[in-house]
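Hey all, sorry for the wall of text incoming. These are the three entities for the joint prediction.
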Amino acid sequence: MATQASRSAARLMISPSVILLFLWMAVPLGMVIYYSFRRYRLLNPDRAGWAGWSNYSNFVFSPDFGGALVNTLILVLGVLLLTVILGILIALLIDQPIWGQGPVRILVISPFFIMPPVSALVWKNMFFNPSNGLFGELFKYLGMPPYDFLGQAPLASIVTIVAWEWLPFATLILLTALQSLDGEQLEAAEMDGAPPLKRFFYIVLPHMSRAITVVVLIQTIFLLGIFGEILVTTSGGPGTASTTLPFLIFKKALLDFDVGTAAAGGIVAVILANIVAIFLMKAIGKNLD
Amino acid sequence: MTMTMRALLGATALCGLSAGAFAESITVATVNNGDMIRMQGLMSDFNAKHPDIQVNWVTLEENALRQQVTTDIATGGGQFDVLTIGTYEVPIWAKQNWLSPLNDLPAEYNVDDLLPSVRGALSVDGTLYSLPFYGESAMVMYRTDLAEKAGITIPDSPTWDDIKAAAAAMTDKGNEVYGICLRGKPGWGENMAFIGAMNNSYGGRWFDMDWKPQFDSQEWKDTVADYLDLMTNYGPPGASSNGFNENLTLFQQGKCGMWIDATVAAGFVTDPTNSTVADHVGYAQFPNKAGVDNHGNWFWAWTLAIPASSQKQDAAKTFIQWATSQEYTNLVASKEGWRAAPPGTRTSLYENAEYLAAAPFAKMTLDSMNAVDFSKPSVQEIPYTGAQFVAIPEFQGIGTAVGQEMSAALAGQETGDEALAKAQALTDEEMKAAGYIQ
Amino acid sequence: MARAVTPARKTVNTAAAWIVALIIFFPILWTILTSFKPEPVAVASPPVFLNFDWSFDNYRTVIQQRGYGQFFWNSVVIAFGSTILGMIIAIPAAWAMAFVHGPRTKDLLMWMLSTKMMPAAGVLVPIYLIAVYFKMLDTQILLTVVLMLMNLPIIIWMLYTYFREIPVDILEAARMDGATLFNEIVYVLTPMAVPGIASTLLLNVILAWNESFWTLNLTAFNAAPLTKFIAGFSSPQGLFYAKLSAASVMAFLPILILGWFSQKQLVRGLTFGAVK
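and here's what came out:
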């Protein structure tokens, strides 16, 4: 039904979305590019002027930049790994015939509804806090000195919080995929004497590959922007141990009030995000159709 | 119609009026510290006196508040009509013409009653730009019962050696008693307020006369080494995320032997409803290093200012006068006792016999505040004024970045010397970028 | 792939599944329990689970000190407003993409998704300055529009995948039977599209409700939603775990209940229509 008329009608229907998204991308981006070449300090408005490439060199050559890149990678990959692996295991478990599958599913998806500042505050205070948190109590009960999670293992603690938030998402998608798996094929394999592990790797996992792709794609989009959890729990610290790229940019913009350097950082981040995006689309885009 | 019904209807009509046509609403940004929360609970008095003004609160954690308020004022956002800011921001922002001057205060406000040091800190060229809500210096608060049990006495004017000895004697980690609690949460107004003051009392300074950062000096090295030594051996676990509020809670729970922090805390640690140790608190002057005549020079006041961009200047002015008035002090005293009165802003409070009787920490607070010298917080030659902060716009960013390094050192991720080396490099870079160092 | 298993096996599986589910749910459960405790009990050592004086005092205190109604209402307006506005713009676009498959459709979709990869922190200052310029800071309209733009790519993508499942043959069959365009839309298309639209709506309301970068940075009081409400409970003075818990429950309970009741649609929504 793709006639000439319907094509132009389609264009008309699509254009509002495209125009809006284009403006939403282009206008701030244009401003950011402009600021990235300006000296612009919110607290010192008198000191303004062109800065050349110095904002870029300040950002890229600052000692925090490399660490922030690594931290961003660890955060994204750590959460992806945890959610996919645990998600598969939990999906396999819930998919078995059990009593109360409905309530179990409700409990498992619940963390998805909790807003990031709430989960960060709850985890930080009521679990990780070494003096009054539950984990501290657990350590005490085991006769060990309390462990300062956010001080000693800040990034791992944040990965835990974020993975908890995203585990329901991964589990549900993987569970849906699992439920559409053809039982007869599995039974046939079982009859042939294929051990459970083999059945999993040769039948179940390939069947779930598309679902895993979706999990990775969607989560990556959201994980690259993780921010609130870091701000609330560690503020990127101690030192810069849990400073990611978005947080570093935020720090430059709203803690140092150095808009120029933050803008340069924003451009660098956009370029990196696009590289990741192209990579991601190339690698798994074909898996989506 | 019964009496109750009529009264109810009348009340509803009143509410409708006050919230409706005649009400002007102002938005107040404030910190989630105890005194401010208390004020929010006492708003019925203000509402009764000024039914035409409705006050909306934005209550945030200290660092979040600073970030939001600073962005708003620097871009002319105009979201707030009253800002809660400190003695660091007021003069800097006033010079940018971001704050409304407060010249014509009515006689009953009794502006001459404000402590001269506080008033001076909030004025630029003799014009007042902000009204003080409460003021503070810093001092040692310690548990008299624990000191007695450990068989030690803390002198009224202790040295850091005395503090260390006392911390060692009081620590009992098995029973969750830590000899000393100090700030470790990064932020120029959090851990750097304490470490900066401690460095003052070690005879150190932030910058030399050429604005060269001094983190490579012996004074800073000693300060940081002793700070880390105290905290790792005698401090609570997780100290790198403890700020003022967290330490206050620990002290109230009886987990700290000593706590060196803002004098305003005294009103809360002696509050019998929230503090398990209210009857066992002793006070001493902020410590100094033996031979250095400097007790930290900690000076701070949380104050209420009106941004020049506010459209509701008159209503905002009415509110900040009420919140910082003598009558507000009396209101707090009548509701919660004199001990809870907001300290450190008015001379009359320290001449009030009832207050002096109820607040054993009053004299120490006043003496500490009076001893501060803004023009020269360090014993060495310095190009800046300030107290536990350096009064230049760039300090906010520098202080927070240095604070991050200190907290990393406290968490054991790097040594004190490494943290200082990084602090030196980043401050140097920032001072060059800002044009102080050519 | 459910298969018949022995009762013993089923019991073991059930126990394991429930244990895992309870561990995942525990932080929420603990928050709910703590919200009913007096403050000192909330930090008691060893921890107290059920044996304490249950009371609503914390809820009362929190509402008295901070209010709740306005934050809640702002959350509702912003979350639903942005999603509905997004749907109005997205439905025609997704429809056209699904039924008039052009050569560039997929590239266009991927480009739309990629706009979500722009780091919000990087564009905060420009957006903030634009908002200041138009005097829109701290307004519901600003937040509604910004969150709509944030979620628009996701909305389009989800709707697109749902619409593509609608078989075109049915439309042609209906036309052959002499159905008018009106009948075609009301009786054939809408029933098939509604579940997808409902799922999309739900999921995006949740995403908007929980959005906590723009809502925190672009609001003060007038448009401040529940994310801002909860931010005020970060490191306050004194014991605060019970009050923090009560505030947390007030922030997440509405959306949690909505989520539980619409579980079925939501599961569809969560899979972004991409997994069958």
